[in-house]
UniProtKB/TrEMBL annotation:
Organism in which the protein naturally occurs: Streptomyces nymphaeiformis
Gene3D superfamilies in the cross-refs: NAD(P)-binding Rossmann-like Domain, UDP-galactose 4-epimerase, domain 1
Domain NAD(P)-binding positions: 6-179
Top-level division of the source organism's lineage: Bacteria
InterPro entries: Ergot_Alk_Oxidoreductase, NAD(P)-bd_dom, NAD(P)-bd_dom_sf
This protein's name: Uncharacterized protein YbjT (DUF2867 family)
Residue ranges of coiled coil: none
Length: 280
């Protein structure tokens, strides 16, 4: 039995979809109605990290678990791990982030991710860590402006990021959950090349068959836009992250995706073509 958390999110949804047809799968979620994975041995438990009873129901009989937490500065990883130990779980596959290995990354989000990793490492359970670069799907936030105005607005348009297709992250996660020899492994996951927002705009223009204009956001406009969606501490952490990207901290291409999957990592061109309808 494998448990997937985050199964209504970007990566967890794909992990559940890949596992569902062939393996006993349990999903823990606050929103069961949003679960799309279907298979002969899929069960859904309504609950969350702050509900001990639901954690116990979800984790009983589970061998390996895919752990996704996103409430910054909360102790959801510790709560999950305590329940996992009590229920006899053997292996955790934790979705983390590439920034944790960058000593220049000292923002609120990265400090929380480092603490989450430490909690996993010291859990007494077998573990595998996944450290992806930014998701290619983050560009979906551009979709409303592309549809209505034909414009992409972003900060630091010429800074490069070796962003990764979430489907590649999910495939590596499934490999870690189902194959031997993954205990104690750390997989740094990137796309096959570093791309800029300007280059992504060009790709999306070609895919959509229409001209798109790129509009550079200055730091203050970017801060204002982020504050419309996030608390101040999170907005400042994201701005710090963007500054690191501008300095070249996110341009490195890693080899884990082809090494684990035996094929090249998907390009942004491929991701964009497969998701064109979202921008149309």
């Amino acid at each position: 039995m494998i448990l997937v958390t985050g199964a209504t999110g970007t990566v967890g949804r794909e992990v559940a979809r890949l596992l569902a047809p062939a393996r006993p799968l349990r999903i823990l979620t606050r929103r069961p109605e949003l679960v799309t994975a279907q298979g002969p041995a899929v069960t859904v438990v309504r609950g969350g990290f702050t509900d001990p009873e639901s954690l116990h129901r979800a984790l009983t009989g589970v061998h390996a678990a895919f752990l996704v937490t996103n409430r910054v500065a909360e102790e959801d990883d510790a709560r999950f791990i305590e329940a996992a130990r009590a229920c006899g779980v053997r292996h955790l596959v934790k979705l983390s982030a590439a920034a944790v290995e960058d000593p220049e990354a000292d923002d609120l989000i990265t400090r929380w991710q480092r603490e989450s990793e430490r909690t996993v490492r010291e859990s007494g359970l077998a573990w595998t860590l996944l450290r992806p670069r930014s998701f290619m799907s983050n560009t979906l936030s551009w979709a409303p402006a592309i549809r209505s105005e034909g414009v992409v607005r972003a900060l630091y348009g010429e800074s490069a990021n070796a962003c990764v297709d979430p489907r590649d992250i999910a495939e590596v996660a499934v490999h870690a959950l189902t194959q031997d020899g993954q205990e104690g492994r750390v997989h740094a996951l990137s796309g096959p090349e570093a791309v800029t927002a300007l280059e992504q705009t060009t790709v999306l223009s070609k895919v959509l068959g229409r001209p798109l204009r790129f509009e550079e956001l200055g730091p203050e406009r970017a801060r204002s836009a982020l504050l419309d969606r996030h608390p101040e501490a999170i907005a400042e952490a994201l701005l710090h992250s963007a500054g690191r990207q501008q300095a070249g901290a996110k341009a490195r291409v890693d080899s884990a995706v082809p090494a684990v999957l035996g094929r090249p990592a998907r390009t942004f061109d491929t991701w964009a073509a497969d998701h064109a309808q979202a921008f149309a």
